[in-house]
Amino acid sequence: MLQRRNFLIGGLLTTAMAASMRPALAAESVALPALDQAKLASDAGFWSAVRDLYDVDRSIANLENGYWGIMARPVLEAYVENIQRVNRQNTVYARKSFDADFAGVRARVAAALGVAPEEIALTRGATEALQTLIAGYNKLKPGDTVLYADLDYDSMQYAMGMLENRRGVAVKTFAIPEPATRDNVLETYRKVLEETPNARLLLLTHLSHRTGLVMPVREITAMARAKGVDIILDAAHSWGQLPLDISDLNVDFAGFNLHKWIGAPVGLGFLYIRKGRLADIDTHMGDKDWPADDIRSRIHTGTLNFAAALTIPAAIELHEKIGVAAKNARVNHLRNYWVERVAGLDTIQVLTPNDPAMHAGITSFRIKGKTSKDDNTAIVTRLRDEFKVLTVRRAGVAAGQCIRISPAVYTTEPELDRLIAALTAVAAS
Ligand SMILES: Cc1ncc(COP(=O)(O)O)c(C=O)c1O
After folding, report:
1. Top CATH class, 100-318
2. Ligand 1 pocket member 209 (CB < 6 A)
3. CATH architecture classification, 325-428
4. What number does the ligand 1 atom closest to the CA of 205 have?
5. Tens of pLDDT along 108-123?
């Protein structure tokens, strides 16, 4: 009797939860006008409809969207709804249904990237994903060398540096030439691989957060493979900003986030380990929740932001609705808009080449000779306070510090006009 009663209550609860936990996917109902394929970047009606999906503080021209991306309103609404439902149902939800929902989220991310769900594990961002891959890569032995460049991300550089003590390897660093071209970048990697016969692992950033440079990953991977060097790819800024086919890039290990260019809530990412390579990354902190042949044993995060994770499908839905080719065309267009208009200012050095294969939306500049932290902080401050243009100083580039401009799909041309006017004044002073 008691058992039957529990069964009935359980059944009712499950039915009620199934109805209430239906993932909020307001993005599904977003209607965008048809995009003129001949005007991917400049179809005014389409891009104005996209911009209208975002609530943006326009009191300043925000050209610092590389940090993280604003969620579109339908994604934000889904997030709020998920927070409310998860909070209301508390452990009833977390204990009973979250695992299955989380598996569905993982499958959705994998499908969007074009990989198997078994090849990815969700993390709290690219840092967690990449640090876990770097620290867990277990094929190194004393006497081996690991490599990274000046343009790679600071915390991944630190993790590569840590391998010296942890694995007894040598750490070799090198600088990407400036100005960069496809040929001199390839030559730099060719040379460092040639000169380092003991190299076993290379950190490679697909799209640099310092200058916006997009690396010829496929070619570098081919060179590295030929020398028995594995690559860990930092894709924090690439997926979403540009189309990415991981099997075409031919990398076995990569880290991503979802809160920059995919537009999911902050604090989400994932790691990718190609099928057949799992054994080369240690289980995370001795994990025993998952078997060693399950990639989920490679990251043990603890209690997650359930609602944020549940919102990933809504973000991907909208991302795919706008389309990555269109997003890429639009951010390239916004980048070219300001770069073309400052090209005549001879004190401005633009740090990514105009080669369309070597940039997306992010591009940094430097005022000739202004390479210090103080110089660049002063310019960023002036742009912000005098011209109401938000940018960010970037350090770590071998040739000197610089200033990064990162527009997003919700950036307007008049906001870029403000940047152009500001740079014209700064360049002249
Ligand atoms: C190139 C690069 N790698 C990694 C990261 C870290 O990403 P996350 O914030 O998801 O940890 C960033 C963040 O700005 C980045 O620009």
Report:
1. alpha beta
2. yes
3. Alpha-Beta Complex (3.90)
4. 1
5. 999 999 999 999 999 9
